[in-house]
Amino acid sequence: MERHVSENREFYSAIINNSDVGLYRADLSGKCIYANDYFKNLVKTLPNLYKNDDQSIIVPLCEDSLKRKVFLKSLLGGGKIQESESCFSANDGKNLYLAETAKLVCDSGGKAVGIVGAVKNISDVKTIEKELALEKNYLTAVMDLFSEGVFIEDLEGTFLKVNRSFADYAGVNNPELCVGSNVHNYFTHRISSVILDNISTVAQTGEDSHFVLPMEDSHGRKLDLSVKHSLFRNHKGEPAAIIGSARESADAEANRIDDTRRSVNNSCDVSYSLNNLCHELRTPFVGIIGSIKALAKEELPERAKSYAAKALKSAERFKDALNYFLHDFSHEESSDKELPFFNSNIVFSKILDMYIPAVELENKKIEFFTENKIPKNISGNRREFLQAIFCLVGNGISVLQGTKLVAGIEVQNLTENDAEFHFFIRDISYEGIKPHSSQLSDVFIETVRKLGGEIYCNSEDGFTIGFKVITGFSSEKAGSVDSFSGVKKYVLLAEDDISSQFMMRKKLEKSGYAVRTATTGLEVLSCLKDSSYDLVLMDVQMPEMNGFEAIKTIRAEEKGDVKIPIVVMSAYDADIDTKQMSLLGINEFVSKPIRTEILEKIISKYLN
Description:
Blueprint: H1 2-17, E1 22-26, E2 32-35, H2 37-44, H3 65-78, E3 82-89, E4 95-106, E5 112-121, H4 123-144, E6 149-153, E7 159-162, H5 164-170, H6 189-205, E8 209-216, E9 222-233, E10 239-248, H7 252-255, H8 259-265, H9 272-296, H10 302-330, E11 341-343, H11 344-361, E12 365-370, E13 377-379, H12 382-399, E14 404-412, E15 418-427, H13 442-451, E16 454-458, E17 463-472, E18 490-494, H14 498-510, E19 514-518, H15 521-530, E20 535-539, H16 547-557, E21 566-570, H17 578-584, E22 588-591, H18 596-607
Parallel strand pairs: 12-14, 18-19, 18-20, 20-21, 21-22
Antiparallel strand pairs: 1-2, 1-5, 3-4, 4-5, 6-7, 6-10, 8-9, 9-10, 11-13, 14-15, 15-17, 16-17
Helix pairs in contact: 9-10, 10-11, 11-12, 12-13, 15-16
């Protein structure tokens, strides 16, 4: 027995003494009473350590007495593991960096009887850190030499590095303040969409891009920035980042993108009242978002957390849409300078998009419908039509009680010169109380009156609220508009990264699908209980409940042979487990970032 114990001691002693970490045991005063060979050899290289009269080492190993007292006091006071880094001058004159970790040793009664610790030489790590910091300084110096704005961003529009010229465009004194922020922080919703689309194209094709971006810098100057994007690939040849530059265009007229993008920031007459309106509407939204963020940090039940997260996401998306709407509305030119025609389908569909969060929170679905014979461009004051449609949708969602709504445009009495256009929102799923004009807002009524139109409510094909107006149209464009008739396919997109979620949703909606988003596995399950969907796009790595756990629950709760198609998305090859996918009933796996053509092909496979 004694021989066996002796062999065990020798075995463990050999392991400890051959470790590349210095290990020690000390009493509560810090006097070292045991140390392994690595620790002994390490302290021999340090001439100025604290020692007792008997020359025993005093731990922890700190470069000054004050730091050691604080370390020891924290250790003895809290009982938790303490960590520290120190720099010593070694016998050879070089600096030696040590990382130390220590904790209390307690007896069977829980009383502290000593200290155990570990010391690691991290000089090589510190040397690498210094070299990297120096290289970073070199990069900063090179970038700052350029008078044009230079930046590096990831594939989702988040800035990794910018120079001083770019920071000046953004209105910040320190370029580091831009790091970690997104293009959404500096540009309107429409401009951000243009930039993100361009980043996506460069990442997919690998080809450099050059376009002109109209904007207003931090000094209030209206600029046309000539922007270049180039793709940077990592050591595996995978798209990793975007290297870009921006300078004031020498010939804006020759390089501008198109009149639509030009109108974003290049308008003239903005009245005081409209500016004030924009401020009054945005300010409460900022307060709402801030309040929800504060609420989300409180200790809430899981179900309440889910609703708080959903409310925050919806409020932020609605704010973005509102910003776009107000910017477009307040920057429009006066009616005497306005173009004689505008695309009513585009105006209507963009306003509907703004209301999607409100519709989703009420567990409703809304589709956009136009007849094939609707002229693409109609004549009239675009601003007044925009106001009337905005009020129509708002009133319709409030008054109509059903869960399935259809909004769109119909035409009657079509002649060579004009037609009667009906803009409507219709409830096709409710059989309760019929809507009445007395339920509509005075603002809606007055807006339609100024337009020269007439409000109507009927119940012929479901409860309908709308307004009709007789106006002209661009005859050469008649019949060329795509039809949105028929039932839309509904996609549930589960993605916890907001930037990725934004880009994916934009691609899906551009393809004509109705999209609802979720950021956790629990939220996915909640969405599926509230509504039915034609396809689920599921991220794997999500908080609260990961994608695989959510899929397992979905499949367990499904009844019958009809199962919703589920496509799993992940940026990690390690998540690909063919056996697990088969057991869970996963239909497809796709690697991120997802190329647009691959996404369209997969969705078409299951929905079309």
